[in-house]
UniProtKB/TrEMBL annotation, chain A:
The keyword Glycosyltransferase does not apply. Belongs to the HscB family. Co-chaperone involved in the maturation of iron-sulfur cluster-containing proteins. Seems to help targeting proteins to be folded toward HscA. SUPFAM superfamilies: Chaperone J-domain, HSC20 (HSCB), C-terminal oligomerisation domain. The lineage of its organism: Bacteria, Pseudomonadati, Pseudomonadota, Betaproteobacteria, Rhodocyclales. Interacts with HscA and stimulates its ATPase activity. Keywords: Chaperone. The keyword Chaperone applies. It comes from Aromatoleum anaerobium. Residues 8-80 form the J domain. This is Co-chaperone protein HscB homolog.
From TrEMBL, chain B:
The keyword Chloroplast does not apply. PROSITE patterns: HSP70_1, HSP70_2, HSP70_3. Signal peptide: none annotated. The keyword Cytoplasm does not apply. Belongs to the heat shock protein 70 family. Chaperone involved in the maturation of iron-sulfur cluster-containing proteins. Has a low intrinsic ATPase activity which is markedly stimulated by HscB. Keywords: ATP-binding, Chaperone, Nucleotide-binding. InterPro entries: ATPase_NBD, Heat_shock_70_CS, HscA_NBD, HSP70_C_sf, HSP70_peptide-bd_sf, Hsp_70_fam, ISC_FeS_clus_asmbl_HscA. This is Chaperone protein HscA homolog. Gene3D superfamilies: 1.20.1270.10, 3.30.420.40, Actin, Chain A, domain 4 (3.90.640.10), Substrate Binding Domain Of DNAk, Chain A, domain 1 (2.60.34.10). It comes from Aromatoleum bremense.
């Protein structure tokens, strides 16, 4: 078995390549790996080792960042499967979803314009709840049906929902200050 | 099953050899140096038994430089040459410095980092800070009885790249080997967490003389993981003094005060602030230069009311940092108070109210940062013991980005990313035959470039001429464990490495630093050649020691020829190190580095493999 900087993140953390990950095992592996490669372990060693350590620690951080949260993890799985989930290719969005997009946007815009902090918080919770359902659907699509084309469309929907979530958070922050 | 002896990379080559390392808290008002002695972190005191060194530097006409208590005494008589709170000027332009009008200095604003005219000529904040570091370094060497292997210097978590780089440059000028720049709240967490063997989420509220930081850390199984950080690099106890000073001017109807009076009253304001920590009211008595007398009393409530807006300024970052960490105030298990300014009762009250619990104050808020830095320095220098399995994972406080069309910021590295981190962005040319491209690197959260900090401008040259849009230029950002950024660029279709010329916006160029170093060496009458030789010899010794240790531990990873090649390079370097040509020693070090490149990679691999093997065992047990 060889380990190198090019191996995929699932292999790096010793996890099966699936959407559903054991978060505790991921964090444990992350801490264990950083404990071995982090620059703080190499501060007193020659430059060759310092450089290697920085490359590895950077890679381990990137891997953890990618696998920790469900959306980047799904995007990464699509990338590994050779499927492009980029928004610029979202030609196949269903009209139902496009309608849904508009409704969310309008609701956020209205609450923002009215300075309705409570309404924004409600929207935040509703959207999060909705996202959880969509993530469940995504898990079935990837881990059970292995249908990456369908997964790509779900990922695009989730990317949009995340964008709305950021808009809500920004609006809430603007209200506070 | 384990056929290979796996080395722990952090273990020292010779366990009995203790390397001298210290932690330095380079503060706005006071600085401290600490070390780990017999397993316990302690602050090192001067001959008079004082641990705190006032961060004050005085330049004399005869070329002497005075730092600390004696310099402080001259503050009233020689204000222009007695520099206080220089940390506020690090990596900053004149327009960024608050309350400029109430400082007595002769500033030079030629763009870039602000400079000060003194009796010894123009000084940069970097040089002035270096004087403070030199005194602390000398104190440490005298106290520990030998040269220092390295130092850890603390910086506010919210310091941007320019301020961090300025701090590192100051250390270089002071002749100190920086093992790491460590964020102040993280240092405090180390001192606190290791002491209390805590687990869970902690908030560190650090209000110093001139800076405010707030960090949320998760402590679990020896890992100190910073989840988010926020703050204000221009808010501190000094602002509370200034507010009280303005109140005095108002009450006593003084306008405008002479610079002497201003200084005297500012001092009185500070004294009153400190008195109010323990008593309900404080007298303010001063005789002005006009002969007029000021005789006032300020109560704790009055002081709290007049500084309410300053406290409020620390509340917004608290809400933001929790949102970034994805936590509510109730999920925070403990709140640690750091910095002298957290002694103010109104600060403690506000923090207690926000988190719904009394903050922890059982470690001296003035010393806790230096102590944490000392603990980290001890580990980084290679004095780690087997049971010291803890590790710090820190973050970058502010997003890094590039300027795009229309003065907008494109974020490349988001804030609160765990360090080290690398990110790349691709760009293309917009004109046929274009061979150069200009970039502007900024730091901050705002959308418009003009609202962010400008870090540097750089230009790529040598792009092979192509039609517009055909070139693929990949600009890579790498942020190291000190939170410092380096940029590289490459044209991907041709593989041409474009040269990057970086011009720091508020920093010193490498040439300027080299010039200052040379000047400093000449000033003390040192021999440049002898110094360079000594430095290379020390480095050679260090590299040989580390390589020999690696061979002992992991020699099994090499075949006989490979081992012989490394041993030959060691022998060659040993030979060169006895000579008197620093460049030859440097070449020998580089040759040894090349010879061990592959070996180092294999050692790293085997260490990572053993991490994975460990997990597999766990899985079986489940």
């Amino acid at each position: 078995m060889s380990v190198d900087l090019q191996q995929d993140f699932f292999a790096l953390f010793g996890l099966p390549r699936r959407f559903c990950v054991d978060e505790a095992a991921l964090e444990m592996a992350y801490h264990d790996l950083q404990g071995r490669v982090h620059p703080d372990r190499f501060a007193h060693l020659p430059d060759v080792e310092k450089r290697l350590s920085m490359q590895w620690a950077t890679r381990v951080n990137e891997g953890f960042r990618t696998l920790r949260k469900p959306l980047p993890r799904a995007q990464y799985l699509l990338e590994l499967a050779g499927v492009d989930a980029g928004l610029h290719t979202n030609t196949a969005m269903s009209s139902a979803f496009l309608m849904e997009q508009m409704e969310w946007r309008e609701a956020v815009e209205e609450a923002r314009a009215a300075g309705e902090g409570h309404e924004l918080t409600q929207l935040h919770h509703r959207l999060r709840h909705h996202a959880r359902e969509v993530f469940n659907e995504l898990e079935r699509t990837i881990d059970e049906r292995h249908d990456f084309a369908a997964a790509a469309e779900i990922v695009r929907r989730l990317m949009f929902m995340e964008k709305i979530q950021h808009e809500i958070d920004d609006a809430l922050e603007a209200l506070e200050t | 099953m384990a056929l290979l002896q796996i080395a722990e990379p952090g273990q020292s080559a010779e366990p009995h050899k203790h390397r001298l390392a210290v932690g330095i808290d380079l503060g706005t008002t006071n600085s401290l140096v600490a070390t780990v002695r017999n397993g316990i972190a302690v602050c090192l005191a001067d001959e008079a038994g004082r641990a705190m060194l006032p961060s004050i530097v005085r330049y004399h006409a005869d070329g002497r430089v005075e730092v600390g208590h004696t310099a402080a005494a001259a503050h009233a008589t020689d204000p222009k040459n007695t520099i206080m709170s220089v940390k506020r000027f690090m990596g900053r332009g004149l327009k960024d410095v608050s309350h400029v009008e109430s400082t007595p200095y002769d500033f030079i604003d030629a763009g870039g980092m602000v400079r000060l005219r003194t009796v010894q000529g123009v000084k940069t904040p970097v040089e002035i800070s270096a004087e403070i570091l030199k005194v602390l370094g000398a104190r440490a060497e005298a106290s520990l009885g030998g040269p220092l292997t390295g130092v850890v210097i603390t910086v506010p978590a919210y310091f941007d790249d320019a301020q961090r780089q300025a701090t590192k440059d100051a250390a270089k000028l002071a002749g100190l080997n920086v093992l790491r720049l460590l964020n102040e709240p993280t240092a405090a967490a180390v001192a606190y967490g290791l002491d209390n063997a805590s687990e869970g989420v902690y908030a560190i509220y650090d209000l110093g003389g001139g800076t405010f930081d707030l960090s949320i850390l998760k402590l679990s199984r020896g890992i100190f993981e910073v989840l988010a950080t926020n703050g204000d690099a221009a808010l501190g106890g000094d602002d509370f003094d200034h507010r009280l000073f303005c109140w005095i001017l108002d009450k006593a109807a003084i306008e405008p005060p002479t610079s002497d009076d201003a200084r005297r009253l500012l001092m009185k304001a500070r004294e009153a602030k400190e008195l109010l920590t323990a008593s309900e009211e404080a007298p303010i008595r001063a005789k002005l230069s006009s002969g007029e007398e000021v005789n006032l009393v300020v109560t704790r409530d009055e002081f709290a009311t007049m500084t309410q807006h300053l406290i409020a300024k620390t509340m917004a970052p608290m809400r933001k940092v929790l949102r970034d960490a994805g936590l509510g105030p109730e999920e925070v298990k403990g709140v640690v108070m750091v910095g002298g300014a957290t002694r103010m009762p109104q600060v403690q009250r506000a923090v207690a109210e926000f988190f719904g619990q009394e903050p922890l104050t059982n470690l001296d808020p003035d010393k806790v940062v230096a102590l944490g830095a000392a603990i980290q320095a001890n580990v980084l220098a290679g004095n780690r013991k087997d049971d010291d399995e803890w590790l710090l994972l820190d973050v970058i406080p502010l997003s890094l980005g590039l300027e795009t069309m229309g003065g907008l910021t494109e974020k490349v590295v988001p804030r609160n990313s765990t360090l080290p981190i690398a990110r790349a962005q691709e760009f293309t040319t917009f004109k046929d035959g274009q061979t150069a491209m200009a970039f502007h690197v900024v730091q901050g959260e705002r959308e418009l470039v003009k609202d962010c900090r400008s870090l540097a401008r750089f230009e790529l040259r040598g792009i092979p001429p192509m039609v517009a849009g055909a070139a693929r230029i990949r600009v890579a950002f790498q942020v190291d464990a000190d939170g410092l950024l380096s940029v590289s660029a490459r044209e991907m279709s041709s593989g041409v490495e474009a040269s990057v010329l970086v011009k720091p916006s508020y920093g010193l160029t490498d040439d300027e630093i080299a010039g200052m170093l040379k000047e400093g060496v000449e000033h003390v009458g040192d021999d440049m050649h002898a110094r360079a030789l000594r430095e290379q010899q020390v480095e050679a010794e260090r590299v040989i020691e580390a390589t020999t240790h690696a061979l002992e531990q992991d020699g099994a990873l090499l075949n006989a020829d490979e081992r012989a090649a490394i041993e030959a390079a060691i022998a060659e370097l040993k030979q060169l190190a006895t000579g008197d040509d620093p460049r030859a020693v440097k070449k020998g070090i580089e040759a040894l580095a090349r010879a061990t490149d592959e070996f180092a990679a294999r050692r790293m691999d085997s260490s990572i493999r053993s991490a994975l093997a460990g997990q597999k065992v766990d899985e079986i047990q489940v």
